[in-house]
C-alpha cells in the first residue's frame, strides 16, 4: 500500500503512462481498422490520441503545468467532438439540433482555460489573484463535467432500446471519466488545492475509461438513432439547471466571502433567503411546469406529443374502474383535458329534441350552463363538419366554416372556455367536449387538431357502446315490466271469464230470483276489482292526453299552493310552498293532467328540501310558450344523474319507489305538446321548467294547419 505523497506521485506517473500507452494503442488499432475498410470513428481516434498526449505530459512534467493544462483542454474538446459524432452518427442532422447549442457552450467554456492560464502567468507574485484564477478555472471545469454528464445521459437514454448496446460501453467510459473529474474538481475547489492521491487515481480512472472504450469497439457498432422521450429531456434539462444553480451558488458564496466580516455573513444569509423564496415560489408552479413542457416540445422535438405516453394515459383514464372511479362521461372529459393540459371541462350530449344538454362536469362546478346548452342547429353543424373550434379565434372574429354563427352566446362570453371538440361515431354526433383554458394558453395547431380528432372518435365509440348498454338494460327492465303486467292480464282474463259465464247462465236462469241476487253480487265484485285495478294502473300510465283546452297556468299554481298551505298550516318543519310570480299565462293543456304533473314535481321538490325550506312556483310567458317553474333549494342532482337516471323508468332513489314518476311527468307534458327541462346543481337545488304552447299561439297554428290541409285537398 502506498502511503506517502511521493509514493502516490510514483503510482500516478505509472498509471498515466499506462493509460497513455493504452490510448495510443487503441487509436492505432482503430486507424488500422479504418485503413482496411472497417468502421472506425475519426473523432474517437483523435480524442484517444489527444488523451494519450495529455497523460504523457502529466506523467512527465506534472498535472498543474502550463503545457499539461493546455493538453487537458485539447483532450476535453476531443471528447466533446466524440459526443457530437455519436449524436449525428446516422446523418440525422435534425437530431443534433437540440444538443448542438449545449456542446458549443461547453466548448466555449473550455476554451476560456487558456486565457486563465495566461492570466495566471501574468499574476505571479499576487497570491490573491492566483487563488481567484484557480477557483474560476475549477468552476469552469465543474460546469464542463456537469454538462458533459447530462449529454452522456441523454445520449444513452434517448437511443432506441435495441440500439443502446451500441453506445453502452462508450457512455460508460465517458461517464467514468467525467464523473471522476466532477468529484476531482469539487474537492479541489473546496480544498483550494488538488491532493496528490486524487491526481494519481485520475490516471487509474483514465486507464479504466480506455479499457471500456476498447470493449465497446470490440463489440462492434451500428447506426444509432437519437430519440429521447419527453421525460428524459425534461429530467436532463432539470439536471442542467440544477448544475448551473449549484455553480451560481458557489460563485456567489465565494464572491461575498471576499467582503469579510459581518458584511459577508449578512450577504450570505440574504442570498440564501432570497433563493429559498424563489425556489418555494417557482417549483410548485403548474404554470412554470407547463411553460417548460411547451418549450421543450417546441424546441427539442419534431412532434409536440409523445404519442405512446399519451395513448397509455388515455387508456388508463378511460379504463379506470372500481367503486371510487368517476362516471364514464366525466372520464371522457378528463381524458381529453389531460392531452391539452386543461384543468377542467364539460360534456354536452344530444337531447331528445336534437339539442345539446349538459351530461357531466369535470372540475368545473362554477360554470353556469343553460338547460339547452346548444340548440339543434349548432349540433347539426358539429355533426356535419366535425370541426374543432378554438374559441379565442371566434372571439377575435375569425370564422373558418361558419362556426361563429353556431356558437351560443354563453360559450363565447365565458373567457375560461378554450376549445370545443366534437365526438363523432359513424358521422353521428354523440357528444361535445368543452375544454377549459389551460394554465399556459396557446394557439391550437395542426398536431393538436389531428390528435384531438382521433381521440374524439375513440371516445365517441366508448360513448356509443355505453348508450347501447343502457338501452339494452332499459329494454330488459321493460321486459320485466311486461312480465308483471302479465299477472294483471291474468286477473282481467279471470274477470272476463266470470262475466262471460254469468251472461250465458242468465239466458237460462234469468227468471230465478236467487240467481238474480247472486248475479248482482258477482257484478258488483267484478266492477270493484276492475275499478281498483284501473286506479292502480292510471297512476303510472301516461297515455295520450285528451280534451286540451285553454287553462290559466297562474290559477293552477295558486290553487296548488293554497292546497299545500292548508295542509301545512302551523307546521314549521314542513317545506313551505310560495308563488313568487304568477303572471297571466293561458296555455293549451288538460287541467287535471297539468295539476298531476305539477303535484308530482312539487312533491319531489319537497322531498329534496330540508325541513322548513321554501319551494317556489312561478309562471311567465316566453315567446310562444307559457313557462311554469318549480324551484327548490334542496340537495340538488348531479349532471350524470339528470342525464342517465332521472327520466329512466324503474330507477328510483326512494325506498319502495317504482321509479316511473318523473318519466310519467315528462311523457304527460309531451302529450300536451310541451317540454320538461331540468337545471340542477348539487348542494344548491333544482329548477324544473314546464313549457307549454300558449292557447292563442296553438289556435293560430291549428288554423294554419287546417288551411294548409284544405288547400292540399283542393289541389288534389
From TrEMBL:
Organism: Novosphingobium cyanobacteriorum
This protein's name: histidine kinase
One Pfam match: HATPase_c
PROSITE patterns xref list: HIS_KIN (PS50109)
SUPFAM superfamilies noted in UniProt: ATPase domain of HSP90 chaperone/DNA topoisomerase II/histidine kinase (SSF55874), GAF domain-like (SSF55781)
EC category: transferase
GO MF annotation terms: protein histidine kinase activity
Isomerase listed as a keyword: no
Record domain Histidine kinase: where: 487-696
Keywords, in A-Z order: Kinase, Membrane, Transferase, Transmembrane, Transmembrane helix
Transmembrane segments: 12-31, 43-67, 101-119, 125-153, 165-187, 199-218, 239-260, 266-283
Catalytic activity: ATP + protein L-histidine = ADP + protein N-phospho-L-histidine
Domain of life of the native organism: Bacteria
EC number: 2.7.13.3
Amino acid at each position: 500500500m502506498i502511503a506517502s505523497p511521493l509514493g502516490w506521485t510514483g503510482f500516478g506517473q505509472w498509471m498515466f503512462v499506462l493509460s497513455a500507452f493504452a490510448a495510443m494503442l487503441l487509436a492505432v488499432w482503430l486507424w488500422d481498422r479504418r485503413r482496411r475498410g472497417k468502421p472506425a470513428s475519426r473523432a474517437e481516434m483523435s480524442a484517444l490520441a489527444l488523451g494519450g498526449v495529455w497523460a504523457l505530459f502529466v506523467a512527465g512534467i506534472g498535472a498543474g503545468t502550463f503545457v499539461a493544462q493546455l493538453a487537458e483542454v485539447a483532450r476535453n474538446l476531443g471528447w466533446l467532438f466524440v459526443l457530437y459524432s455519436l449524436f449525428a452518427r446516422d446523418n440525422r442532422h435534425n437530431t443534433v439540433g437540440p444538443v448542438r447549442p449545449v456542446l458549443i457552450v461547453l466548448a466555449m467554456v473550455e476554451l476560456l482555460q487558456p486565457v486563465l492560464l495566461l492570466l495566471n502567468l501574468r499574476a505571479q507574485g499576487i497570491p490573491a489573484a492566483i487563488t481567484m484564477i484557480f477557483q474560476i478555472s475549477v468552476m469552469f471545469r465543474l460546469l464542463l463535467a456537469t454538462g458533459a454528464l447530462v449529454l452522456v445521459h441523454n445520449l444513452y437514454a434517448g437511443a432506441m432500446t435495441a440500439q443502446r448496446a451500441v453506445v453502452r460501453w462508450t457512455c460508460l467510459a465517458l461517464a467514468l471519466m467525467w464523473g471522476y473529474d466532477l468529484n476531482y474538481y469539487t474537492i479541489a475547489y473546496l480544498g483550494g488545492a488538488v491532493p496528490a492521491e486524487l491526481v494519481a487515481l485520475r490516471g487509474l480512472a483514465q486507464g479504466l475509461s480506455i479499457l471500456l472504450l476498447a470493449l465497446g469497439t470490440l463489440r462492434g457498432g451500428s447506426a444509432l438513432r437519437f430519440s429521447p422521450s419527453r421525460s428524459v429531456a425534461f429530467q436532463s434539462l432539470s439536471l442542467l439547471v440544477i448544475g448551473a444553480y449549484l455553480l451560481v451558488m458557489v460563485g456567489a458564496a465565494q464572491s461575498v466571502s471576499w467582503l469579510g466580516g459581518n458584511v459577508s455573513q449578512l450577504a450570505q444569509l440574504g442570498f440564501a433567503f432570497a433563493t429559498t423564496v424563489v425556489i418555494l415560489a417557482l417549483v410548485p408552479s403548474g404554470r412554470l411546469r407547463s411553460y417548460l413542457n411547451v418549450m421543450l416540445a417546441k424546441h427539442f422535438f419534431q412532434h409536440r406529443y409523445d404519442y405512446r405516453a399519451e395513448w397509455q394515459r388515455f387508456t388508463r383514464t378511460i379504463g379506470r374502474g372500481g367503486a371510487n372511479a368517476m362516471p364514464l362521461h366525466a372520464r371522457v372529459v378528463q381524458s381529453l383535458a389531460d392531452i391539452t393540459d386543461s384543468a377542467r371541462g364539460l360534456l354536452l350530449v344530444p337531447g331528445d329534441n336534437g339539442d345539446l344538454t349538459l351530461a357531466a362536469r369535470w372540475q368545473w362546478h362554477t360554470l353556469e350552463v343553460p338547460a339547452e346548452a346548444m340548440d339543434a342547429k349548432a349540433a347539426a353543424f358539429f355533426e356535419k363538419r366535425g370541426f374543432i373550434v378554438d374559441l379565442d379565434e371566434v372571439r377575435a372574429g375569425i370564422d373558418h366554416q361558419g362556426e361563429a354563427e353556431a356558437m351560443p352566446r354563453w360559450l363565447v362570453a365565458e373567457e375560461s372556455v378554450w376549445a370545443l371538440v366534437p365526438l363523432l361515431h359513424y358521422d353521428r354526433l354523440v357528444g361535445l367536449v368543452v375544454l377549459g383554458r389551460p394554465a399556459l394558453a396557446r394557439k391550437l395547431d395542426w398536431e393538436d387538431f389531428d390528435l384531438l380528432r382521433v381521440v374524439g372518435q375513440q371516445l365517441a365509440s366508448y360513448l356509443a357502446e355505453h348508450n347501447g348498454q343502457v338501452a339494452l338494460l332499459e329494454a330488459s327492465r321493460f321486459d320485466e315490466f311486461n312480465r308483471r303486467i302479465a299477472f294483471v292480464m291474468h286477473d282481467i282474463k279471470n274477470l272476463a271469464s266470470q262475466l262471460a259465464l254469468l251472461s250465458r247462465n242468465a239466458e237460462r236462469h234469468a227468471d230465478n230470483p236467487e240467481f238474480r241476487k247472486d248475479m248482482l253480487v258477482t257484478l258488483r265484485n267484478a266492477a270493484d276489482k276492475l275499478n281498483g285495478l284501473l286506479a292502480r294502473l292510471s297512476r303510472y300510465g301516461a297515455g295520450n292526453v285528451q280534451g286540451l283546452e285553454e287553462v290559466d297556468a297562474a290559477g293552477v299554481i295558486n290553487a296548488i299552493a293554497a292546497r299545500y298551505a292548508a295542509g301545512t298550516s302551523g307546521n314549521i318543519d314542513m317545506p313551505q310552498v310560495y308563488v313568487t310570480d304568477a303572471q297571466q299565462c293561458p296555455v293549451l293543456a288538460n287541467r287535471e293532467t297539468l295539476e298531476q304533473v305539477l303535484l308530482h314535481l312539487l312533491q319531489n321538490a319537497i322531498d329534496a328540501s330540508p325541513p322548513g325550506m321554501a319551494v317556489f312556483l312561478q309562471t311567465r310567458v316566453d315567446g310562444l310558450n307559457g313557462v311554469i317553474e318549480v324551484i327548490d333549494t334542496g340537495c340538488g342532482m348531479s349532471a350524470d344523474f339528470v342525464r342517465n337516471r332521472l327520466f329512466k323508468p324503474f330507477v328510483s332513489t326512494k325506498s319502495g319507489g317504482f321509479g316511473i314518476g318523473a318519466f310519467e311527468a315528462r311523457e304527460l307534458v309531451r302529450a300536451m305538446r310541451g317540454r320538461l327541462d331540468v337545471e340542477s346543481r348539487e348542494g344548491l337545488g333544482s329548477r324544473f321548467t314546464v313549457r307549454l304552447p300558449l292557447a292563442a299561439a296553438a289556435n293560430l297554428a291549428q288554423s294554419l294547419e287546417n288551411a294548409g290541409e284544405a288547400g292540399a285537398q283542393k289541389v288534389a
